[in-house]
Amino acid sequence: xxxxxxxxxxxxxxxxxxxxxxxxxxxxxxxxxxxxxxxxxxxxxxxxxxxxxxxxxxxxxxxxxxxxxxxxxxxxxxxxxxxxxxxxxxxxxxxxxxxxxxxxxxxxxxxxxxxxxxxxxxxxxxxxxxxxxxxxxxxxxxxxxxxxxxxxxxxxxxxxxxxxxxxxxxxxxxxxxxxxxxxxxxxxxxxxxxxxxxxxxxxxxxxxxxxxxxxxxxxxxxxxxxxxxxxxxxxxxxxxxxxxxxxxxxxxxxxxxxxxxxxxxxxxxxxxxxxxxxxxxxxxxxxxxxxxxxxxxxxxxxxxxxxxxxxxxxxxxxxxxxxxxxxxxxxxxxxxxxxxxxxxxxxxxxxxxxxxxxxxxxxxxxxxxxxxxxxxxxxxxxxxxxxxxxxxxxxxxxxxxxxxxxxxx
Length: 409
What we know:
- This protein is α/β, with parallel strands linked by helices.
- It has twelve helices and 15 strands.
- The strands form four sheets. A five-stranded parallel sheet has the order 3-2-4-5-6, with helices on both faces. Strands 8-7-9-10 form a four-stranded parallel sheet, with helices on both faces. Strands 11, 13, 14 and 15 form a four-stranded antiparallel sheet that branches.
- Helix 2 crosses helix 11 and helix 5 (160-174) packs parallel to helix 6 (188-201).
- The protein starts with a helix and ends in a 5-residue tail after the last strand.
- Mean pLDDT is 92; it is low at 18-27.
C-alpha cells in the first residue's frame, strides 16, 4: 500500500513539475518592453507634415494607412499596431521635443522611419542613450550605418554618399571633360552627399567648378541657379529636397540653361517634383532608383505593384501613386512589419534590433527586381543597390545595370 502511495505521489509530483515547466516555458516565450503587450505594439514616428520639407509628409500618411491594413487583417501575431506620428516641421529642436514625447509620454516601443538628416542627427544620441530603436531612419546619411557607436540606429534607403559615387562614376565614364556645378542643402544631408560626390571623383574632383549651398529657410533658390549658370558649367547636380528641386527645374527652364541635370533620388518623385515643375522642363534629367515608379506602366502587371495598387485603392484612396514618397512609405512600412513578425512574442527593444540586423534577401513589393534588403550585426545599411534612370515623356526610364552603391568593382 505504501509502495503504491509513493508511486502515486511520485507520479503527481512529476505531473506538477512538467506542468510548471510547460507553463514557465510558455510564459518565457512572451517578453515585452515598454510599448508592447498582448494586444498592442506602440510605434512612434516623426515627420515634416509642415515646413520646407512638407512634401515628405505623405510618407507618414502612407505608413499609417499600411498599418491600418495590417490591423484590419488581424495585426501582427494578434497584436494591433498603434502608430503615433508627430510633426516636427523639419526642425531639429522640434524633433527632439517630439522624440521625448514619444518615449517618455507615449511610451513607444521604438521610433520608426523618422525623417530628415538634421532631425535624426538631433535625436540620435538621446534615443541611443535610452536604448530605444531609431529604426529605418528616413534619410540616406552615412552616419546611420554605425552599429559600433550607435547600436540603436539603422537606416533604410541607400546612403547618400553611395548614390553620389554612382553619379561620379557615370560622369567620369560618359562625360570625362565635364564642368560640374552643385547646389546642395547646407546641412548634414547636403554635405554628406557632396562628400560622396568628391570621393567618387577622386583625383578628378577639380571637375567641380562651382558649388552653391542654400538654407531651407530661403523662400527661393533662383539666385543660386543664376550664379551656377554663370560658372560655365555643363553639368548641374541638384542635392535638394523636393520643394527646391522643383524650383531649380523651373528656373533653369526660365533662363534657358540646359546642362546635363542630375537630381538626387530623394527628389526624383514624378508626382512630388517633376509634374509640378513641368514635364516639358524635365526631359533628360538623370537620377538613380531602387524602387519601382508608380508612373511607369511597365509595372502594371508586376505582382508586387499590383499589391501596392490594391492597397491604395482600399486603404489610401486619396494617395497619388505617381508620388515616389507613397511608394517609399509602403516599402518602409512593409519592412517594419517583417521585423515585428520575426520578433514573434519577444517584443523587447533588444530583439527588435536583433531581428532588424538579421534580414536576409527581403524584397518589399516596391523595390526594383534584383534589389533586396540585407543586414547583419555589423552592417546597418539595408539597401545598397541602385539603377540609373533618365526622365522621358512623363516617366523615368531605367538604363544600365543594377549597381552596388559601394562601387567596389
